[in-house]
């Protein structure tokens, strides 16, 4: 074992003439607590889309535990241990919080089936669903349809769904967006509670959150990795300050 959970090799993605991903060689070690930062439009979400199979790369490879997953579908990658949350969420808006999470638990157990088919009263599914809702402090919202939840709390449901997959690699695209700062601690607590073997990569523009979560930070600018380092190295890097953080940034 090399200790690398996720790796991209010379990954490229173009949308027509727009070269959004430009030869990214990226490695996420097993158990990493890593952040991906960079200006709007740098290609952060696109990189997650390529890793998870939402988009197909124009060139390059993606490896999970050193196994080439470039040709796998989104669902296959999810079964192989990749889970992510979306910047724009993809929940079943008419279904309750409880049902959204329960479906994800059932899916992992291979009893997903049709949305129309009741899952019955499987106590294991219900118990696990409730445990996830408790972890994300969603119990008071359990019976509300997703569409009635504030955007920030919808992001918490997405995290619960990602955790329901029991992933080996967890990719979070702006998990705190829309959550009041007072609730950021919840995200930190959830990440801190994860099995230390799970690798976490978090995209966020909230530098306070990023610097509290990440042991390493990768900086993406204009589709390429500008640099990577510890929070101290990144906050002291004049190129990162110029491209993204601003000259006044103080970690
Ligand atoms: N499906 C698509 N078709 C065409 N262009 C796209 C597509 N997806 C992304 N892009 C473009 O690729 C570039 C990178 O977008 P991306 O969403 O990856 O940026 P980002 O770093 O996540 O930005 P933000 O911080 O605003 O979320 C942008 O110019 C965007 O318009
Ligand atoms: Mg994005």
Helix proportion of residues, in percent? 25-40%
Which regions are unreliable across 5 or more consecutive residues at pLDDT < 50? none
Strand content of the residues, in percent? 25-35%
Q: Termini, distance in Å? A: 35 Å
What binds here, in terms of ligands, is: adenosine-5'-triphosphate, magnesium ion
> How many separate helices?
9
If you consult CATH, what is the topology of the domain at 4-93 and 169-245? Rossmann fold
What would you call the shape?
A: globular
Largest pleated sheet: 6 strands, mixed
Highest CATH level, the class of the domain at 4-93 and 169-245: Alpha Beta
Supply the CATH superfamily name of the domain at 4-93 and 169-245.
Answer: P-loop containing nucleotide triphosphate hydrolases
Gyration radius from CA atoms, angstroms: 18 Å
Note the run of SSEs as H and E.
EEEHEEHEHHHEHEHEEHH
Sheet/helix structural class: alpha/beta
Overall pLDDT confidence:
92
> How many strand units?
10
Strand arrangement in the largest pleated sheet: 6-7-8-3-9-10
- Named CATH architecture of the domain at 4-93 and 169-245: 3-Layer(aba) Sandwich
